[in-house]
Design goal:
It contains 10 helices and 2 strands. It is mainly α. The protein has 2 domains: about 150 residues, Up-down Bundle (Ferritin); about 160 residues, no CATH class. The longest helix is centred in the N-terminal third of the chain and has 29 residues.
Length: about 325
């Protein structure tokens, strides 16, 4: 397997039985997510919690109908197939992160979930030949589109009058999916993964020029790898994450930037001056990543800082120990 290339199945290669199995597992996951949202909102937003309870029950009904169809066509044994097994399939936010989401973010998440599910069912229906299967998948696509009306009700109940328009929210959400998330992942990978080779080379050679060459090679190589992996791993058709080219550019460029940040100081001929500046740049990079995660990805700042800074410190220490040894 080529490094960075996903080994997951392509959606177009799935059989009709596998499409049904994927739909069943997806409905199970979405029902659980809606129940988690309902539990999170019940104390402060009981009306919204009831809406999510109803959406969870409807997903349960979808799952029941899909299982009945599978039993009629293929028997009782349902293949184990989940979202993570299919390349380009939309991903769901882990349910344990819901504790950190506000009502506005939960509403946006629910709306995006329904749009993704509708796209999936329409694409799945177009890929099936059996009439009963195509009819059910088409009916479920229509049902998922109606869930958008419930999300709209949440908007009317809880969004202030001066809230941004739906188009602006959709554009912002797409911007985050297409540019911010791949960019943050790339910046984190470039900043952290290149720490060890750069500082190992620095302390092993005490030569700024040699260290610069190692840093440039690490940063550019990591940028190409991350950009390629992001662009080929998800075509965006079902996940709704946007153009793979844009996501690949965002991931690749930010990965390279993250690595170059602490490599370029070694243009300075004095070793210790360059190393001190590179260390300061590393600190700035790691705190910037934590801030971006809080600003765009709803991650609590101190949790993000702990994860990023601690991970970066460990990698940095590894590079110094190896190079100094």
């Amino acid at each position: 397997m080529i490094p960075g290339v996903s080994s997951r199945r392509r959606f177009s290669d799935l059989s009709e039985q596998e499409i049904l199995a994927l739909a069943i597992s997806s409905e199970e996951d979405d029902a659980q997510i809606y129940r988690t949202y309902a539990q999170r909102l019940r104390a402060d937003f009981p009306a919204s919690a009831k809406i999510f309870d109803g959406m969870a029950k409807e997903e349960d009904e979808h799952r029941r109908r899909l299982i009945e169809l599978h039993r009629d066509r293929f028997g009782d044994t349902i293949p184990l197939l989940r979202r993570e097994h299919v390349a380009g399939f939309y991903a769901r936010r882990p349910v344990w992160l819901v504790e950190n989401l506000g009502i506005d973010t939960i509403r946006d998440e629910a709306e995006a979930m329904e749009q993704q599910a509708e796209r999936f069912y329409r694409k799945a229906a177009a890929q099936t030949q059996d009439a009963s299967t195509r009819k059910l998948l088409g009916d479920l696509a229509t049902a998922e589109s109606h869930h958008g009306e419930l999300a709209e009700q949440l908007k009317q109940d809880h969004v202030d009058q001066d809230a941004k328009s739906e188009e602006e929210r959709a554009a912002h959400r797409q911007f985050v999916l297409t540019w911010v998330q791949p960019g943050v992942a790339g910046l984190m990978d470039g900043s952290v993964s290149t720490l060890a080779p750069v500082f190992a080379a620095a302390f092993a050679t005490r030569d700024p020029h040699q260290t610069l060459l190692v840093g440039l090679a690490s940063a550019v190589g990591a940028g190409i790898s991350m950009g390629f992996a992001e662009s080929v791993g998800d075509d965006g058709e079902i996940s709704g994450r946007g153009s793979p080219l844009k996501r690949g550019i965002a991931s690749g460029v930010m990965t390279a930037v993250g690595g170059l940040g602490h490599a370029l100081p070694y243009l300075i001929p004095d070793f210790w001056t360059a190393t001190i500046i590179a260390f300061v740049v590393v600190v700035i990079e790691l705190w910037a990543i934590a801030w971006i995660q809080k600003r765009y990805m709803e991650t609590p700042f101190f949790r993000a800082a702990l994860q990023v800074v601690l991970g970066g410190a460990l990698v940095f220490a590894t590079g110094v120990l190896i190079g100094g040894g």
